[in-house]
Amino acid sequence: MSGKYFMVDTTKCTACRGCQVACKQWNKLPAEQTHNWGSFQNPKDLAFDTYRVVRFNEYPAEKNSVAWYFFTDACRHCVAPPCKDEGDQYVKDAIVVDKNGAVIYTEKTKEFGKKFEDVRKACPYDVPRMDEKTGLAAKCHMCYMRVNEGLLPACAKSCPTGALVFGDEAAMKKLANERLAEAKKKFGDKAQILDIDDVRVLYLVVDDKKKYSEYA
Ligand code: SF4
Ligand code: SF4
Question: Of the residues 15, 58, 59, 213, which has the fewest C-beta atoms closer than 10 A?
């Protein structure tokens, strides 16, 4: 195995949403009409035209304060993508994996029709979304066109805190393990890297993973 990986250190994320906005800008995706739904998080979820959303999870903490568990959520670029391998040959052909491991939804996804529901259910992280108007399925594509030119994905380029980092597999796994060792000293054994052998987005979390995302 080789290719490119993200490393996401949730302890360094300030929920500035730079990554979310940079993704919209680079991909020329329109803003969604949002409203106050009782959270600082907006929009509420991933969408056909929102490939990345920063989740704002808020929990009561000591001394009448709150604890924030920020989580920049997008496709994990699975090493063996369940969405691609859900069983249908047309789906297999419509979803491609490039030399860096980016899982890319092509124009062929327009013909998924009812198959799209099986694709979405196959994803352990509930990532893929379909445009009701065109039928096209979409999600993060790892900015493969930037990466092929030696650039960082727009999200990683924008992150001001070092929470969202991108690079070669060995470097990202080394960084993840170094950050994990630091986090364990401070937060104890709940610090962990999620699904390290299965995905190309290595999340460091320091508490129960479900506190970060229902699908973490
Ligand atoms: S996270 Fe979901 S959409 Fe992304 S590659 Fe894995 S199965 Fe596919
Ligand atoms: S740009 Fe970095 S610090 Fe800001 S929300 Fe995204 S991951 Fe967090």
Answer: 59
User: How do residues 127-182 score in pLDDT, each as one tens digit?
Assistant: 999 999 999 999 999 999 999 999 999 999 999 999 999 999 999 999 999 999 99
Instruction: Kindly state the tokens that stand for 117.
Output: 């529901």
Q: State the Cα–Cα distance between residues 160 and 195, nearest whole angstrom.
A: 25
Cα–ligand 1 centroid distance for 177 (angstroms): 23
Q: How many CB atoms lie within 10 A of CB 27?
A: 16
List of domains in the chain: 4-75+146-211 (3.30.70.20), 89-141 (3.30.70.20)
Give the pTM.
0.96
Phi then psi for residue 205, to 5 deg, are -120, 160
- Ligand 1 within 6 A of 125 CB? yes
How many helices (H) and strands (E) in the chain?
A: 6, 10
Q: Is the CB of 17 under 6 A from ligand 2?
A: yes
The ligand placed nearest to the CA atom of residue 8 is 2
